[in-house]
Amino acid sequence: MAIRSFFAPFLFFALCSYSSLTPVLSLYEDQVGLMDWHQQYIGKVKQAVFSTQKTGRRRVIVSTEENVIASLDLRHGEIFWRHLLGSNDVIDGIDIGLGKYVITLSSGGSVLRSWNLPDGQMMWESSLQGPKHSKSLLLVPTNLKIEKDNVIVVFSNGRLHAVSCIDGEVLWNKDFEAESFEALQVIQPPGSDLIYVVGFAASSQFEMYQINARNGELLKHERATFSSGFLREVSLVSSETVVALDSTGSILLTISFQNGEISFQQTPISSLVEDPSGPAVIIPSSVPGIFAIKTNAFTIFIRVIGEGKLEVVEKTNHETTVSNVLPISEGQQAFALVQHAGSEIHLAVKIAHDWDGNLLKESIKMDQQRGLVHKVFINNYIRTDRSHGFRVLIVMEDHSLLLLQQGAIVWSREDGLASVIDVTASELPVERDGVSVAKVEHNLFEWLKGHMLKLKGTLMLASPEDVAAIQSMRLKSSEKSKMTRDHNGFRKLLVVLTRAGKLFALHTGDGRIVWSHFLQSLHKSGTCQSPIGLNLYQWQVPHHHAMDENPSVLVISRCGPSSDAPVVLSFVDTYTGKELNSLSLVHGVVQVIPLPYTDSTEQRLHLLIDSDKHAHLYPTTSEALRIFKREFSNIYWYSVEDHNGIIKGHALKCKCTDEAADEFCFDTRDLWSVVFPSESGKIIATVTRKLNEVVHTQAKVIADQDVMYKYISRNLLFVATVAPKGSGEIGSVTPEESWLVAYLIDTVTGRILHRVTHHGARGPVHAVFSENWIVYHYFNLRAHRYEMSVIEIYDQSRADNKDVWKLVLGKHNLSSPISLFSRPEVITKSQSYFFTHSVKAIAVTSTAKGITSKQLLVGTIGDQVLALDKRFLDPRRSVNPTQAEKEEGIIPLTDSLPIIPQSYVTHALRVEGLRGIITVPAKLESTTLVFAHGVDLFFTQLAPSRTYDSLTEDFSYALLLLTIVALVAAIFVTWRLSERKELQDKWR
Amino acid sequence: MDTIKVVAAIILTIYLFPFLSFGFQSDELLVDDEEFGLEGAPQPRFPEPTSTRSAPVTTATRKRHSDLDSDSKIEFSLDHAFGDSDFSPAGTFSARIKTWSHGGQTLTKLRFSRNNFTNEEQKKFKNLLESDDFYRIRLPSNVLSPPGRDFIISSVKARCLPREGLDEHFVIHMEGVNVLAVNYGSPGSCSYPRNLKLPVKWSFSSYTVLKNSEQAPRAPIFTEEILGGENGGGEVVQPPERSFWAKYWMYLIPLGLIIMNAITQAMNMPEEQATGQVAGTVQRGPSSAARRR
């Protein structure tokens, strides 16, 4: 009896505590940052302006190639504020006006904006129009005033504007209508009311306009012709002298336009240097009295003495970069010079008129491979001993940004991560005995204290301090940032390739950079001036040899954009970041096909197709060749020629017939082709399934105990074409002349399995293909809304296998091999829904076994990632689902897809400039890892069907233990009590 | 109920809308009933894949319809290749061009005449069968001005074709007068592994189908009254209302236990006092067993 009365409250208590553990789909506020991380970047810096006012924080304003303007803390390199302008709003110039406004000129010189320096709020924006397209130049003179108004001078679109710094009002403008005039410099000599606009016209004419800065009146217009023409760069050596090169690059021209008179001085380079070795180019700079030219072998610094006389001051064959000019005192101007010498860089700060004396000379050891210095920006400060100190901001070849001061790197930013071009995931090392990284829990007391706190939290007894302590404990838990594999597969390395050609490994636990490697093949070198990284492939993923082999990735890089440019394959160890090997290929690469075969060392076989349609097998081992030969006739691939609308299917034919070719080269042949008529179809999207996607079951049980078989083929290609007219801007086409056709093509036989036309629809199309369905997003011109359509494809040839008796007697065809050469018997189901957002990227969650239901991850225009349940995009949704359908989980039909604010994966954060979303399955079936990249990086874990297969992280084991102990104790006590009672009863 | 009717009517109109007003690009393929023996068959309202089952037709038995309009009749040839050999003529497609009032042109009445294999071709085909190689065919991509921009190629493993004779199946995807793609293969399945089997008769039975694009179903447009303003999306996400038991079972079970406990205790007390220890033990056994279940 008593047992029961004791037991009941405990049971009640235990049940209550369990029910409170029901997991939730969205995050609670205190869970932010537990499993996700977010990193902010700005991209490669184009221009930097320092703002070091006496008061306030030291900061530097930068504009970048990712179209970001940002204010960075000079002490730590953190971002104060940041704005991402659109990709069609390229920043042409930045400056600081009145010491408190950041002025930016963008969109080819047509948009001028002013931002408040402390907080980055926009003050005003003005649109500057002009008669023709031209180079845009921004000039913010310090002391030019028109009626107490500070003036910004902008040359853009063939027109010179003077804009008020206070409100952005255009004070005056002046057109330069001469057809071929190309402005190169806008000069405002300090202390005068004149503006000079100099430039070239008709390639051989130098023109100079003198303009009154107060009202835009043209005072003087001079021109002079130089018969052999000019190169399009000038260097400003004083406010009334520029230096240019003639069109052959061998004669220096000193052009002076003092008092409105143009005079030329010619100096052949060969008279200055004995061996000029080829044509020279001018390095644009504005150091008074000195300019630099660059030939193939040398960088030459030349001083201008007096009336157009030139004198070489230095000739160096090191890579040299010159900074901007910094006025330090009356009449004195300093500039910085950075030279490479091995792993060190030498920094020298000089006064403009005194080449031989150095204000500062330092050499700085680079901590890692960063390549060449691309840009230098100089700034000064007053040292404690009242002398001038200098700090420089340098931009490296790998797009990183470094601040140098007192011979050391004060801070560095890895801004190459703002332009990720490819991502792959790699496992971490297996935890080995002896080298265990895991720390033993500090001591028992700490452990108990931690669990007591958790217990308090669970029982809602915790005070605010306790809550804070719990939070910090969770964040600190070193568990998630360990360098070993975990049981659930949450810890991985994300290997990313950036546009600069640097490879980074990011830890999924906290996003830190585990290693980075600037590939040798992606350095700019004499043989290759513009190397580009193409793709990243998993080369070796050891499972059987996980203890003694490291996984590696294959990086494919090419010299320049043309498809037959030389290609380098680099193999990089993902644990250490070491380049294991690199191969320079003799053939070009158009297409890389990872094959589904691995050799005995678990290296994946790759087929590289070159521009002559030869296939090359890698790795070049005899074992790989043997495996390849075995599967020779089962290898098919396709190629898309989107410029002329042809898709072709290919297969292997035989060994290469060229004598020069090795045994790993194979001839190919065309098997099929699909030609889209050029007047009605332009390919705008092609999507296939992910190679590593796992599908759990082919059968799908639908409402009335019926089964449908998904048509699951790895060889399906989704193609979307639009009317050629409809591929322009939105608004350029009427609904009647715009359509979108979606195709499903089998890539082995070239069969079109499904083809559907959406009239009145247009691109851009974003699509995702998973299992047997495709979801695509496009714009509906008739409804003036974005739409998402789903196509599901089912296999009818297996549809007869519903009879139990057939299955029992083995008369089914479920285990027979499928040949794609059979006539396909498929049916498709499709449905369209409206969707509010325009989309930047679409991905789908992927899990280890493919059991968990799927969610679509939609990168919205607001740079957030929205998780949308696939059930909303079910083609079988109907207005009134039957009871059976409701049980199956079919949602009643609505015309648009719901956007639930809680289902934003990125919660309150924004992944600025979102470009791609990558999902990686964790080992735990319910969970998938999501990595979104753009200018920012974001990572999180997602459980589309909630974590049904594990306890949540904040599960209190102590509470469970306590409950069990208490129950056991209670059982014993009551047992004793009842014993005693029975004894008493017996004695009665 | 009324609203549902209204909705049904609206949806119906929406679905019919494209066919009523925008007959545009109507890829409707007019099937000549007479030719395909579909007399009395209802005209398909919109383009079903039109099976022009031209049955085993060979040049010898085929007769030209003299009543065809000569200026709108076209022919285009089918070429074939054995393995990697060059293409050579293999047969002729003939069709009529139907010009629509809006200017679009489509093909109708597709017929196909296949040339028989010559002895040499037969030998080549046997070689293909033995080496399990590809039999390739090609069509011009534009039937008015062949070959158009490029040829449409399709291939099939030769071993898929032989049955009794040689069976082949064409699905020609058209876009106006342009051939987009051709699905070529055996009319049935082609089992894997492919076994070597020589045909008994060296004549082709060809099946040809012309296909045009289907219209996508429109996104359903609901009127405001159904949506009920903004909570249309909200309705969907709300889980269905659960029953009282489903919601509170975790409280009800312990509560039930407590109550039962109390009752039995209350019942036991007087009984024990009244009947003494024997009855008490007897009573306790079953009742506790019952409760533990």
TrEMBL record, chain A:
<keyword id="KW-0812">Transmembrane</keyword>
<feature type="signal peptide">
    <location>
        <begin position="1"/>
        <end position="26"/>
    </location>
</feature>
<dbReference type="InterPro" id="IPR011047">
    <property type="entry name" value="Quinoprotein_ADH-like_sf"/>
</dbReference>
<feature type="transmembrane region" description="Helical">
    <location>
        <begin position="955"/>
        <end position="978"/>
    </location>
</feature>
<comment type="similarity">
    <text>Belongs to the EMC1 family.</text>
</comment>
<protein>
    <recommendedName>
        <fullName>ER membrane protein complex subunit 1</fullName>
    </recommendedName>
</protein>
<keyword id="KW-0325">Glycoprotein</keyword>
<feature type="domain" description="ER membrane protein complex subunit 1 C-terminal">
    <location>
        <begin position="770"/>
        <end position="987"/>
    </location>
</feature>
<feature type="domain" description="EMC1 first beta-propeller">
    <location>
        <begin position="27"/>
        <end position="415"/>
    </location>
</feature>
<keyword id="KW-0732">Signal</keyword>
<keyword id="KW-0256">Endoplasmic reticulum</keyword>
<dbReference type="InterPro" id="IPR015943">
    <property type="entry name" value="WD40/YVTN_repeat-like_dom_sf"/>
</dbReference>
<dbReference type="Pfam" id="PF07774">
    <property type="entry name" value="EMC1_C"/>
</dbReference>
<dbReference type="InterPro" id="IPR011678">
    <property type="entry name" value="EMC1_C"/>
</dbReference>
<dbReference type="InterPro" id="IPR058545">
    <property type="entry name" value="Beta-prop_EMC1_1st"/>
</dbReference>
<keyword id="KW-0472">Membrane</keyword>
<dbReference type="InterPro" id="IPR026895">
    <property type="entry name" value="EMC1"/>
</dbReference>
<dbReference type="Pfam" id="PF25293">
    <property type="entry name" value="Beta-prop_EMC1_N"/>
</dbReference>
<keyword id="KW-1133">Transmembrane helix</keyword>
<comment type="subunit">
    <text>Component of the ER membrane protein complex (EMC).</text>
</comment>
TrEMBL record, chain B:
<protein>
    <recommendedName>
        <fullName>ER membrane protein complex subunit 10</fullName>
    </recommendedName>
</protein>
<keyword id="KW-0812">Transmembrane</keyword>
<keyword id="KW-0472">Membrane</keyword>
<keyword id="KW-0256">Endoplasmic reticulum</keyword>
<feature type="compositionally biased region" description="Polar residues">
    <location>
        <begin position="49"/>
        <end position="60"/>
    </location>
</feature>
<feature type="region of interest" description="Disordered">
    <location>
        <begin position="40"/>
        <end position="68"/>
    </location>
</feature>
<feature type="region of interest" description="Disordered">
    <location>
        <begin position="274"/>
        <end position="293"/>
    </location>
</feature>
<keyword id="KW-1133">Transmembrane helix</keyword>
<feature type="compositionally biased region" description="Polar residues">
    <location>
        <begin position="274"/>
        <end position="286"/>
    </location>
</feature>
<dbReference type="Pfam" id="PF21203">
    <property type="entry name" value="ECM10"/>
</dbReference>
<feature type="transmembrane region" description="Helical">
    <location>
        <begin position="6"/>
        <end position="24"/>
    </location>
</feature>
<comment type="similarity">
    <text>Belongs to the EMC10 family.</text>
</comment>
<keyword id="KW-0732">Signal</keyword>
